[in-house]
């Protein structure tokens, strides 16, 4: 990645880059695909790897919309496959940047399967991607913050900080004593568990 010419050409002129906070809506991406025979596993359902590929592209578009930079996938967490997706169904992917940190950001991707005849949708999949904005040499560069505008965006923004600590902890990039948000959440959980254990008077 570090000596790629496309990367150099795409990032040398960084006049379009700004560090002003950006609303979540600025990074939103909606992608639509149709499941065809080449996308199927032996059971006749959409291949998990094909879906992850589409999700990665959708998330990359969100990351690049937020930053106006070339962004690379650093990690993928909490991937769930809740319901198989069948041939002929329409796959709708929606992503947005939940929160930006220094050079990295959390992108949430949600996936629905849509019946093309009835247009009814069922929720199938969710994952959280970490993208890092890079310069022309592939090194991480600072990115603008996210400005949440709705209560849901605010909640996602706060949860993103806890998930970040967890993924950095699990990848050995954060010592446990520095995982302060997680420690606070665990203390809160323990307190609510012990108060609900108390017998009624
Ligand atoms: C017509 C115009 C054409 C234009 C044309 C443009 C080109 C259009 C390109 C399209 C692009 C599409 C892209 C698709 C998506 C890929 O397919 S990308 C390919 C797959 N990914 C890669 O190859 C990435 C390989 N990894 C790397 O290059 C480096 O590890 C990284 C990700 C840049 C990080 O570098 P590093 O030296 O570890 O940097 P470090 O300073 O330690 O960490 C930087 C940040 O990453 C975070 N981080 C690092 N590792 C992790 C981890 N495991 N978990 C969580 N966070 C992590 C750190 O916490 C830190 O965050 P901040 O505190 O700064 O917010």
Automatic annotation (TrEMBL):
GO terms for biological process: acyl-CoA metabolic process. Coiled coil: none annotated. GO terms for molecular function: long-chain fatty acyl-CoA hydrolase activity. Residues 25-137 form the HotDog ACOT-type domain. The keyword Hydrolase applies. GO terms for cellular component: cytoplasm. PROSITE patterns: HOTDOG_ACOT. Keywords: Hydrolase. InterPro entries: Cytosol_ACT, HOTDOG_ACOT, HotDog_dom_sf, Thioestr_dom. The keyword Hydrolase applies. It holds the Pfam family 4HBT. Belongs to the acyl coenzyme A hydrolase family. This is Acyl-CoA hydrolase.
